[in-house]
Model the fold of this input.
Amino acid sequence: MNRNIDLQRLLMDDTTSLSYWLNWRFFLCGSWVLIVIITAAILIIKYEVFNTKRRHQQDDETEPIGILYEDETWKTSLRVIHPAWLLAYRLIAFGVLLALIISNLVIGGARVLFFYTQWTFVLVTFYFGLASSLSIYGCCQYWNEVVDDNMNDVGLEDSLIQVSVEPQHMSMKLSNHGDISTHKTAGIWAYSCQIVFQICGGAVGLTDGVFWFIIYPFLAPATYKLNFLNVCLHSINVVLLLIDVILNRLRFPFFRLAYFGLWTCSFVIFQWIFHACVSMRWPYPFLDLSSSYAHIWYFGLGLIHVPVFGIFALIVKWKQLLLSRFS
Done:
């Protein structure tokens, strides 16, 4: 009964009226969003390493926490796993996610794009598409290195017959084809892939966690029933992403929580602008600014970003620790 009353109230609120926006709740929530944006900008400016001059200045110093090498986007976590396996997995994941997005659009129409879940799902799909492209490039590079090394091996074997000098150097050249990192810093597309990967890590945890622990048990209408597509949209993305975590070699610097915060702020601002122009029900009840608990909801959901992102970062850290012990 209370759920139906809340839904009726949401439908009756005119989000285009000035009185809806000119109140202390909106200004307080807006202040928190602005604080997140400013804090994120400071973190990005301080720790990000897009600037080439800055990279060169830090060559002789400690490695920047945001550094990424080119081969880390397509090489696997274990040397025994060929990069082609990671490529195959990413292509399959991209196909599965794209099929689910298309199915959801066909069934639900364009209105499904108003939900944060869909934003996140599209972003995860984009990640797998971009990561697949980088894996294709990396596999081509890997195979070229193997061919070049094999040709060098033939030359080295011929020279060993004539002279026997620098055996240690030659043995290093003869082993671990393609495993020696060139330590070439990544380009803009590789950095974009890592950033999107980290945003996805936090966003899938937020969407799936909020849906299964808050929306479905407490906020969903009594008539709401789960179907196969809804279950997939709120579960398969995190499963596919965790498998990619196990296979890939991407780092997970914690300061990129800033991008995750900006991603959510972009969604919130989009909803504010849209509802200021068109009066319609909010996609999530806790976004409704007419509620007397709006400021609490916004503040609480903002705080959730930190542990959600932190859990994913810990998973990546544990994986790296396990690999360092057993590899």
User: Anything to note?
Assistant: The CA atoms of residues 2 and 189 lie 49 Å apart. The chain has a mean pLDDT of 85. The chain has one domain: 2-57+65-326.
